[in-house]
Amino acid sequence: MKFGLFGGPQTQAAGANTEGTLGYREYGKYIVEAEKLGYSSAWLFEHHFSGFGQPSSSLNLLCYFAGITKTIRLGSAVVVLPWHNPILLAEQIGTLDVVSNGRYDFGVGRGYRNTEFHGFGIDHHEAGAIYRESMDIILRAWRETERWSYKSKRWEFNNIIVEPDTMQKPHPPLWQGAGSPGSIRQAAQQGYNLLLDQILSFEDVGEKIAIYRSEVESLGRQFDPYSVGVTRGLMVAHNAKQREAAHAVRNQFVSRVKALTSGENSKSPTFNPVGEVKNETEMSENGAILGDKKEMIERVEKLYECGVRNILLHDLTGSTKALREFALEVSPKFTNKT
What letter does residue 311 receive in the DSSP assignment? Predict the structure, then answer.
């Protein structure tokens, strides 16, 4: 099995309780420590206008992390294409892939927080169309070796050539965040690796992987279990008091996200990973990697039995102690399993 990280730093946003969270430089040190401990990857999310300091310029941060690490892979989970100029994005990703020496994984999505679309003045009903056109433009930008032009109702590019070339050929690995059966099948049809969210129960994770695997194999391709990244909350707790405290941190995070994605004016028209959460504590009990060494091993074993081989850990406290404990006490039980 492989174990990576998912998450991001948190700025000192006005009115936000940032106790126990890591700033930009501190999060960089956290990733450096993870690399030393043998974690395989670090994935950074992108959000805007949250009001509690979530990272907005993820590619800039990943370039910084590339400069202070050597071997750990760096991924976007995800870049929301409708918010970006596709040619500028192709150039930025080319730059990141070069400075990281080919260690970048390009995760993409079309977005789900209506508050973000409203903030950018973008009609969320156009998200799918913008996403598809932008991805086509980006992939073409990496294919073309001569100058080219493009014009549509949305974009116009004249006599361009995108530089620098990506180090990985024909481009960095493509990952897609998906949750519904239809979007999971579509990811498989388009040749994307799959990113699954941290809200799903263990049983739901197994069902989603089965859908993806079935679609991949129906297309005549061999299924690679490492092509599915499953994010899980990491909540180290050695007693009832620590367990309660871990739930409090995670419940606050989920509640904040729910507040941004529910209600008449902010409900997402697309996949919403927290939209169906009724009880935050129950959600974590049913799906997080939670507890002491023994329980965490049992929970990873459950994921293994569901077909998971690539786990991305999201520790909202940014605890280096928890990072070490998992790496030294839990992951060795699974790193030789295939």
Answer: E
In 3D space, the residue among 200, 201, 209 whose CA is nearest the CA of residue 181 turns out to be 209
Residues 187, 199, 49: CA angle, nearest 5 degrees: 85
- Reduced to 3 DSSP states, what percent helix, strand and coil does the chain have, rounded to the nearest 5? 45, 15, 40
Task: Please determine, for residue 200, whether its predicted confidence score (pLDDT) is greater than 70.
Answer: yes
- Both tokens of 17, joined, read 């309780």
CB atoms within 10 A of CB 244: 11
Name the nearest CA neighbour of 113 among 266, 9, 231.
266
Q: 55 CB contacts (<8 Å, ≥6 apart)?
A: 8, 9, 10, 11, 24, 44, 45, 46, 47, 61
Which tokens is 81 given?
């294409």
Phi/psi for 265 (5° steps) reads -95, -10
Tokens linked to 32: 């450096």
2-333 has CATH 3.20.20.30 classification: yes
Q: How far is CA 119 from the centre of its chain?
A: 22
Task: Determine the Cα–Cα distance for residues 299 and 284; give it in Å rounded to an integer.
Answer: 11
Q: Parallel, antiparallel, or unpaired: how do β-strands 193-196 and 174-177 relate? A: parallel
| Highest-confidence segment of 10-14, 46-50, 253-257, 281-285 | 281-285
Higher pLDDT, 337 or 110: 110
Instruction: Take residue 139 and report the two structure tokens written for it.
Output: 């992939």
Tokens of 171: 């481009």
Question: If pLDDT is split at 50, 70 and 90, which confidence band does 260 have?
Answer: confident
Residue 282 to residues 36, 46, 250, 288, 303, Cα–Cα distance (Å):
33, 26, 11, 10, 17
Give the residue carrying structure tokens 């297309």: 219
SS3 11: coil
State how far Cα 46 lies from the chain centre: 9
Q: DSSP string spanning 97-154?
A: HHHTTS-EEEEEE----HHHHHHHT--GGGHHHHHHHHHHHHHHHHH--S-EEEE-SS
SS3 226: helix
